[in-house]
Design a protein that fits this description.
By secondary structure, the protein is of the alpha+beta class. It has a domain of 82 residues: RNA-binding S4 domain (Structural Genomics Hypothetical 15.5 Kd Protein In mrcA-pckA Intergenic Region, Chain A, Roll), CATH 3.10.290. The chain contains 5 helices and 7 strands. The termini are far apart. Keywords: DNA-binding, RNA-binding. GO terms for molecular function: DNA binding; ribosomal large subunit binding; single-stranded RNA binding. Belongs to the HSP15 family. One of its GO terms (biological process) is cellular response to heat.
Length: 141
């Protein structure tokens, strides 16, 4: 049995839809045995498929060919994930770096930031320029 690579990647749940798999092939994010492929390329048992999902390139070995989408429990019967550990380390570093590289004040405020902002607003809301004490200071001079 022969199956298109975009259909196969959808069937083994690498992509959520066949059109997304097809777009990935067209954009050069999918390789078959080291060669960039078009969506219509046929997959055979023993092929190595590389899928680039930034920042990681996943590598799968085809054990069986499937045309129809399957449940997640059946996927290990059809593909073997042979992605090197170094790729997963890059993914972990990228995840951690997202918090480390973020400059303070960028992005959404943390709970601590929000609480200190609320404290500051409460403190300044209680001060009014129309207080008598404010004008008395000016009169003393």
């Amino acid at each position: 049995m022969e199956v298109r690579i975009d259909s196969f990647l959808w069937a083994v749940r690498v992509f959520k839809s066949r059109s997304i798999a097809s777009d990935a092939c067209k954009k050069g994010r999918v390789t078959l045995n080291g060669q960039l492929v078009k969506p219509a390329r046929l997959v055979a048992v023993g092929d190595l498929i590389g899928v680039r999902k930034a920042p990681v390139t996943y590598t799968f070995k085809v054990l069986q060919v499937a045309k129809n989408r399957m449940g997640a429990k059946l996927v290990p019967e059809y593909v073997l994930n042979v992605t090197p550990k170094e790729e997963y380390e890059v993914l972990e570093l990228k995840r951690v770096a997202g918090f480390i590289d973020r400059a303070k004040g960028e992005g959404r405020p943390t709970k601590k930031d929000r609480r200190s902002l609320d404290e500051w607003q409460d403190m300044h809301d209680s001060f009014s320029f129309l207080d008598d004490d404010f004008f008395e200071l000016e009169d003393d001079e």
